[in-house]
Design goal:
CATH topology of the largest domain: Heat Shock Protein 90
CATH class of the largest domain: Alpha Beta
Radius of gyration: 27 Å
Strand content: 5-15%
Number of helices: 7
Shape: elongated
Number of strands: 7
Structural class: alpha+beta
Strand order of the largest sheet: 2-4-5-7-6
CATH architecture of the largest domain: 2-Layer Sandwich
Largest sheet: 5 strands, mixed
Helix content: 55-70%
Length: 289
């Protein structure tokens, strides 16, 4: 990156120096046309510099996207290997050791959790791909019980997160919505998993679903590290992850919030990001059904 930019700057400097040199020669050869030569030279250099700046910006953005994609591939690989290794270990233990029925059920239950984790990851990749396809932005909408969906996802992720009570749910019953069930499943899952991921071990995460003045409001609040003001405008970008690559410790692919924002946009829903008190982040989703 540095060597490429150095070569780029050197070529820009060399080209400008040549323009000035040839301009001086033309002025020396045709002194009567000096104003025209200087004016056209300045205009050319301005256009040249603007083009060079645009090329530099495009190059840096391309390098940034490429780095994010590489990080995404590494993250996906890790996210796939971790549950697969866990499932393999559980199955090998069941096959090689004489376990009682309760232990077998426990190991199979843990394997099922890891399979569900893999399913969520694959679903995220599929939805992200679907969002980018031309004409695939239309979701299949149906009427379903949103309260039941939020409760079911919360119960499943509670088992994943900690043995103690982590997810505190306040779900108003019988809230129905017309939307794409699978897409909203991904939205709720990503928001809750994101809150758990950036929270301290066994910290409380609040999940609330309610109806206010005809609008359906989903709130997911954590008491984790929070998001600074500068990063709030980038968190919904594809592959973007909070924090620097050097200091980041949390797992993830950078697709979760990108999917959340795009799915909600196609459902004419709003999402707001707020600071929690005393620490953490609040995501508020508003459906104006």
């Amino acid at each position: 990156m540095r060597k490429t930019l150095f070569l780029f700057y050197f070529l820009i400097f060399y080209a400008l120096a040549q323009v000035v040199w040839w301009g001086m020669l033309l002025v020396h050869m045709q002194p009567t046309r000096k104003p025209m030569i200087i004016g056209e030279g300045i205009f050319f250099m301005l256009i040249f510099l603007v083009g060079a700046l645009l090329m530099r910006r495009a190059f840096i953005n391309e390098h940034k996207v490429q780095r994010q994609q590489n990080n995404f591939l590494l993250s996906v690989t890790h996210e796939l290997k971790s549950p697969l290794a866990s499932i393999k270990l559980y199955i090998q233990t069941i096959l090689k050791r004489k376990l009682d029925k309760e232990q077998q059920i426990q190991f199979l239950s843990n394997s099922l959790k890891d399979i569900e984790r893999l399913d969520d990851l694959v679903e995220n990749v599929l939805i992200a791909t679907k969002l980018e396809k031309v004409g695939a932005k239309r979701f299949t909408k149906e009427l379903f019980d949103f309260s039941e969906l939020v409760e079911r996802i919360s119960d499943r992720l509670q088992i994943h997160s900690c043995t103690s009570q982590v997810l505190i749910t306040q779900v108003e019953p019988n809230i129905s919505i017309i939307a794409d069930r699978m897409a909203l499943t991904s939205v709720v899952t990503n928001l809750i998993e994101n809150a758990i991921k950036y929270s301290p071990p066994c910290a409380n995460v609040q999940v609330e679903l309610k109806r206010v003045n005809g609008a359906i409001i989903l709130v997911v609040a954590d008491h984790g590290i929070g998001i600074n003001e500068y990063e709030k405008k980038y968190i919904f970008d594809k592959f973007y992850r909070v924090g620097s690559e050097e200091t980041r410790k949390t797992k993830g692919t950078g697709l979760g919030l990108y999917i959340v924002k795009n799915v909600l946009d196609h459902h004419q829903a709003q999402i707001k990001v707020k600071d929690n008190v005393p620490s953490g982040t609040v995501f508020e989703v508003i459906f104006n059904n």
